[in-house]
Amino acid sequence: MIDRGLQVAGEAKRSEHWPKVEKDFKEAHPECAACGMRGELNVHHIFPFHEIIAAGRPDLELDPRNLITLCVNPEYDCHCEIGHLGNFSSYNVRVLEDCKKYGKLKKVEIEANPDWLLERNVRPSGHFNGALDRGIFLSKIIQVFGKDPQVDLHGDVLGK
Ligand SMILES: [Zn+2]
Ligand SMILES: [Zn+2]
Fold first, then answer.
1. Cα–ligand 2 centroid distance for 42 (angstroms)
2. Above 90 in pLDDT, residue 50?
């Protein structure tokens, strides 16, 4: 399967521990969080891989709190439509609530949905520009996940 996160990541490399974390997560969450389908699935990063690396939070590549299973089924394509708001360079920090909102809609129906179109129109560019953007991104991460990593750089839970 094409690794979309890596495609937009430029220089950044996946952790050597990512394949195991990905496999374990997919086993624990074997269906699309939006439409419920099994089969062609992607383990998606809510805060995208290239930005968490650039923001200095590599732990979030391996932290299950930042992961969600979404399908790449051509009829639904929840990964692209809901996880990335229609563009793999972008991302959707409200993906959890949007899975409930758009999860039963097919790709063509999502793309005609006024709420989705509004979100798409203000979707993040996906590559922050300079320190201010980086600061805003980091403060969003801290709001959602807190300041302290919960897994180490092997993907193991800290303090256990
Ligand atoms: Zn789906
Ligand atoms: Zn993704």
1. 7
2. no
Judge residue 101's burial from the number of C-beta atoms within 10 Å of its C-beta, 0-12 exposed, 13-18 middle, 19 or more buried. Answer: middle
How many C-beta neighbours within 10 Å does residue 39 have?
10
Q: How far apart are CA 45 and CA 69, in angstroms?
A: 9
Ligand index nearest the alpha carbon of residue 75: 1
The tens digit of pLDDT for each residue in 100-147 reads: 999 999 999 999 999 999 999 999 887 777 777 888 889 999 999 999
Q: Which residues pair with 157 in a beta bridge?
A: 151
Token pair of 127 as six digits: 């590559």
47 Cα to the center of ligand 1, angstroms: 19
